Each structure stands twice: as C-alpha cells, then as structure tokens.
Give the backbone structure.
Amino acid sequence: MPDDDARLMLAFQAGDRRAFETLFARFTPRVLTFLTRMVRDRARAEELTQDVFVRIHNAADRYEAKAKFSTYVFGIAHNLALNELARAHRKHEQSRSDLSELGAVDPSPSPLEKLDAERTRERLEKALGELPERQRAAVLLRSEEGLDYEEIAGSLDTTVASVKSLLHRARESLLAALAEDE
Amino acid sequence: MDCKRDREELSAYIDGELAPAPRAELESHIQACASCRAEVAAQDRLAEAFASLREVTPPGDFEARFWARIAREKEAAAEPAGWRRWLTWPRALTAAAVTALGLILLVPAASQHAPGLRIRLPHPTVTADADPNVKVDVKIVSNPKDYELLQDPDMDAISEVDVLEDWDDAPPS
C-alpha cells in the first residue's frame, strides 16, 4: 500500500503536475537540510537538492512505489551526497575551514545541560561533521528526519542490522564529542 | 559503562524499534540498572540537542529555478544532441573542417542549393569547402562515436548546416 507521498508520485506519473509540486514543497526543506549537513556546503547542497528533484522528475515514468517515498528520496540524496563527498575529497576541497563555517566552538567549558540551544546546536553540528559519512547519514535520517530503521536501510542500501550498528556508533561518537566540549 | 548489556539494543529501544517482548524485558532491566539509566538519559539529551538543529530553508526562488531547469533540459532534449546541435547552428562558415570516419556530405540539387554533390570521406580528416550561399545537408553514416566535427576558427560563410537523419545501418556502398 503506497504511502501518501508515494501516491502523489504516482499521480505525477499519471500527469498531475500539482502532485509533484506538493512533493517538492514537502520534501525540499528536508532534503536540503540533510544534504547541507552531509556535504557541509550550503550552496552545493542547494545544487544537489535540485539534482535530486530533477532525477525524481525525469525518472517518474520508471517510478514504482516499492517502499515509502521518503526512502526513495533520501536514497537518491544519500547517493548524491556520497558522490559529492568523494569528489570533494579527491580535489582536497574538504578542509577544516569547511567545518568551521558551521559554527565555531566556544572553548569555555560548560555542562551540556547548561548550554543554551545555540551552543548545543553548534557543537552538535561540528560533531556531526566529524562522523564517518554513513554514520552521519544514518543518524541524520533517524534523529532529524524521523525515518525508521527499515527506511534508513532502504535509503542507505544496507540492512536493518547495519543501521542499528551505524546509529549506535554515531551516537556514541556524538556523545563523546559533546562531553569533550563540556 | 559497567553494564554489559548490548548498547545497540539500548539505542534501538530509544528509537522505538524493539518488539514488545524485548522492549518490556529491557525496561525492567533499565529500572534496575543505573548504568543503562544513565545511557538512556544521555541519549535523551542528544535527542534534545538534535531538536535544536535548524531546518535549512530553501531560498524563495528555489522552485522557480527547478522548473526553469526542467524547461531547459526539455528544450535541450528536443534539440539534436551534441554533434547534431553543433551542426544545426545557423552560423556563417566558409568551410567545414570535418574530422570523420565515413561521413557523406550531400548537397541536394534543389534550385536554391548547389548542384548535387555526394562526398564519401574515407579518411579520418577531410576538409570540405562550400559556397557561402549553399545550404549543406550532412548525412551521418557512421557510428556517432567514431567521429567528431571541428570548426575551423577562420570559417565564416556556410549559411546553414542541417543534419537530415541518423543512419544507423552500414553506409551505402
């Protein structure tokens, strides 16, 4: 049984442009947020988000509602993010300065519980940026996008057991990184 | 952590991914285990930290840019691809420097065209010259991957070059 978003995609497949516009409005903030945190470059994330929706649009004829639409969308976004990160790595474009754009860390110590939301956000973003790519993708899809393990597994083209492991390791690393900053 | 309990299981519990039976069993354990309670509390704080992350908002023209790109791509797809697009540019050329494997240039004998001319290009590089007022039709008879068309920077007078059609079969003998 297709979910609501998948039904919209099927409607677009049948020629309903408004259905695609609804999907676009619904998913672009989520995909852009995911890609911004994945590639850590806002402008590039915007381009990649456009790429995601161009692919969805142009492949509409071949779309099959096999899984939740979010799995389909984030699967494409994840693949594009990995390609971009590999490309950036090859060109040695990934640098510490990229990370600093997401927010400098205040060196003054303070317990996590007492941090204001802004500083917590900055620390978490920095820690997220330092995670291995697949761990980062898994934890973003779970903790920010609210995908369940099966959806994440579909998006990352892996197993639920692997997702479980990725999430556990990601969270341990994030907690350790946040604790270090305290 | 002192507890040897599977931490991945604890993570799945926090995500609501455990089946009812193991979930109930783990909840009983957590009540009795300070180490696991501390882990759950830490994970809760992490979830709160995630809640502080801001969604990235697309710029106002994001959707307009998307549809403009789709329109551009549709337009490009409707045009002849790559080499064909190059050929159909209505540019003024005095000569076409053609690097080819098995090209045939056809100049139809229509009244406004030059007298009929059919040239088989047997070698990779051939240069063809044409009158500035002649319309040259080019029929490709080789695999498009086998050749490329190059523009001589000094050319300035062929009025138009059109591709008639792809010709996938073997060239006529």
